[in-house]
Amino acid sequence: MAHVYNDPVDFKDDMVEGFLSAYSRYVERVPGASAVMRRGGPQRGKVSVIIGGGSGHYPAFCGTVGPGLADGAVIGDIFTSPSAEQAYRAGRALEGGAGVLFSFGNYAGDVLNFAAASERLTAEGIDCRTVLVTDDVASAPLAEQHKRRGVVGDFVVFKVAGAAADRGDPLDRVEALARKANAATVSFGVAFDGCTFPGRDQPLFSVQPGFMDVGLGIHGEPGIRTVAWMPARELAGILLEPLLAEKPAGAVRAAVILNGLGATKYEELFVLWQTLAGLFIEAGIEPVLPEVGEIVTSLDMAGCSLTLTWLDPELEELWSAPADTPAFRRGSMGAPRSFATEGLSDSPATAGDTEPSPAAAAPPVGEPSRAAARTARLALRAMLETVTAAADELGRIDAVAGDGDHGVGMVRGLRAATSAADDAGQAGAKGVLQAAGAAWADKAGGTSGVLWGAILTAAGAVLGDQ
Amino acid sequence: MAHVYNDPVDFKDDMVEGFLSAYSRYVERVPGASAVMRRGGPQRGKVSVIIGGGSGHYPAFCGTVGPGLADGAVIGDIFTSPSAEQAYRAGRALEGGAGVLFSFGNYAGDVLNFAAASERLTAEGIDCRTVLVTDDVASAPLAEQHKRRGVVGDFVVFKVAGAAADRGDPLDRVEALARKANAATVSFGVAFDGCTFPGRDQPLFSVQPGFMDVGLGIHGEPGIRTVAWMPARELAGILLEPLLAEKPAGAVRAAVILNGLGATKYEELFVLWQTLAGLFIEAGIEPVLPEVGEIVTSLDMAGCSLTLTWLDPELEELWSAPADTPAFRRGSMGAPRSFATEGLSDSPATAGDTEPSPAAAAPPVGEPSRAAARTARLALRAMLETVTAAADELGRIDAVAGDGDHGVGMVRGLRAATSAADDAGQAGAKGVLQAAGAAWADKAGGTSGVLWGAILTAAGAVLGDQ
């Protein structure tokens, strides 16, 4: 369980502040956003690779921002996607005239929020593409690869995209290479014990002592089977076998990551590698620059996973390219490449111009709408009280199906929504509900945040201000 | 607890095999030894920095072998010093004509075993120096700094020595700089929960839930006080205050490491850094290239520690120098420096010539000594049976005062000793006891290994073969 925190509600913000301070030689904050970027901000004329997702997975995601890897990372609460507003702000701030690639693991909350951000950026004239990572073979069959979750494959896809962008590839090419890396990447994992949110004393889930949960996800999503503990030499086969089942004909060279989830330590991973090394030889696989360590963690979860990316010469060059970030360094970056600054149109995405323009002056608000706004405020307050009282139960239910944060997330969103509704002063129903919806989506993040934000905003639009 | 292992007795050997395989681009085995060295072995004319200690602390120690850091690492069993024989073999194999620096944390077992190795190397004409790391302020007062344990300060001292050796400094200078780095380095830590040896289901020690053990050592050595849990913003002061108490007048710039012990994860460390950053400013300290992460772990122990090294320009240059190792990389190494290969005497330490010369033909063994040898074999076997039956109790007692491995270590040593005594065939008392002593010291490692090895060897010398 976590032991080092202040108010658990502030955990993510405290963490981001500390990260920015400790690694100021690499990163700085995206102004006004829960996001970090390479020190010095975007490079004009270079594609910007923006990654993200919930926190609790360090080095993923902010730990791999730097030359040769990502340009920025949007940071959500623990195991919770960042909001569309934060992703949008990161996209605006980091666009350097050559377009933006969003890349992240395939989870409903991230998909919804980054899609909303992408729509806004596209509407403002920024070329914005998205590559979902779908490497976890335990989460869907090969025929439904697009439904798979993203786990440690995230890192390989980000590495490939980041290296391509840094050598000057255009957006079409960076996107295509990231898709190719994702299609070539497979992962499979096991868990031995659960993880615990800061401030909680009960784990999000648990694994029966003496057993292991095969295929369990990085947020505790249920695995595909529970089996008795087995020695490392047998576990190695359990991890590799489902990946070999999808080995393309003729594939020989592979990027390999043996990843610890938090409490399963390096020495254990090396014991496992001892057997894996022999299995790779038997299977005709040549590991290329393998990494054994913690690349994508899940708080203090006990468990590990194996990731393979089948390399062709193009992917191998990008996997092998130098990188220099807080948590991952490879080779020598040399002097930063200069990007063309001429011939680029003066796009609307000039760095620094990150504030949306104010809305045109609205017509006066009618008294019936003011009355409806008061009702909306009371309704939000009643929701907050009800949901606060039920927060533990909502968390318990969510822990069965998901990551157990639904109670906390709803309370965080409703607090922000009621506060924004109160601050909206003499606004009508539309003004109050849209302010509440925007605040909910922004502060809560996750799937419920973006959905409730959209519900309130839509209801406000129907009711109007008259 | 550990979940990934085969036979716990083989854990270290399995781990070393896996490490060598996964990171073969960095390291290779020291021939015939439980030790690793930079790929390609020693460089002629360069001082060799050899580090070591028990395992269970990765990245310490083998994870930091590579250009800019150590030349080799001797690897003991979990929380157990490597044997003198292994340290000797590493010294022989890695000496490149410019001498050897042994450096390791100040623990009785390591001190005894490396000292025995150093004596043998010196007797064979190799210039061998030793720098103990003594940074843990919780373990002795400043006036008895030489009695302090070595914890994360190990890494800083190794980094400084490694950088000095790689730029071509002679042994006197490398030794002096390592001593200076050690004198300038202070660490202090806390633990929230114990760690568990592979194959055990009970932790080595435990911390009462809701409390933290302040000053606890990296092998579970008792701390200086137990206090109630406190928020990160208060914990930051607890960690920094005893280090500030030893701040030299005028010290401003400091290397800083905020280290996680295994289960206390990165996000928690960043939350702690948020407060530390402000405290550094208040105290007039400027962190130089700080590292927040896992540098010296203790299996899956929950806890963290803070390390400061007061930097002058000389130490800062070495702390900042590039390094490229499996677990720690900084900057760009560039092409490896060439060292002089002329003018060096053809010392007895030529790499590859690692086998000690066979003993001169011995006089025949007398029958009384053969009878004594049979008694010695029976005595060893009785010891093995007695100690095996008492192994759990020996471990329990040792867990109160030390690291809980005394039962396991004694059994490992006695098994090796009885086996070697049996293999000694028609030897007399001296031959049998010296074979048993050498095997015990080599296979058991630790303090008890080197002491029992010395006892049996000395008894054999007194009894003789007649």
Structure description:
Two copies of one chain form a homodimer. About 4% of the residues of chain A have low confidence. In chain A, helix 6 packs across helix 7 and helix 10 crosses helix 11. Chain A starts with 10 loop residues before the first helix and ends with a helix. The first copy, chain A, is built from 13 helices and 14 strands. In chain A, helix 3 links the parallel strand 5 and strand 6. In chain A, the strands form three sheets. In chain A, strands 1-2-4-3-5-6 form a six-stranded mixed β-sheet, sandwiched between helices. The first copy, chain A, is of the alpha/beta class and 466 residues long. The interface between A and B is large, with 71 and 71 residues.
Number-wise, the strands of chain A total 14
N- and C-termini, Cα separation of chain A? 52 Å
SSE arrangement of chain A, N to C: HEEEEHEHEHHEEEHEHEEHEEHHHHH
Q: Runs of chain A with pLDDT <50, length 5+?
A: 341-360
Strand order within the widest beta sheet of chain A: 1-2-4-3-5-6
Multimerization state? homodimer
Radius of gyration of chain A: 23 Å
* Biggest contact: A-B, 71 and 71 residues
Query: What is the strand content of chain A?
Result: 15-25%
What structural category arises from helix and sheet content of chain A? alpha/beta
Helix content of chain A: 40-55%
Largest sheet of chain A: 6 strands, mixed
The average pLDDT value of chain A, as a whole number, equals 91
Tally of contiguous helical segments of chain A: 13
Morphology of chain A: globular
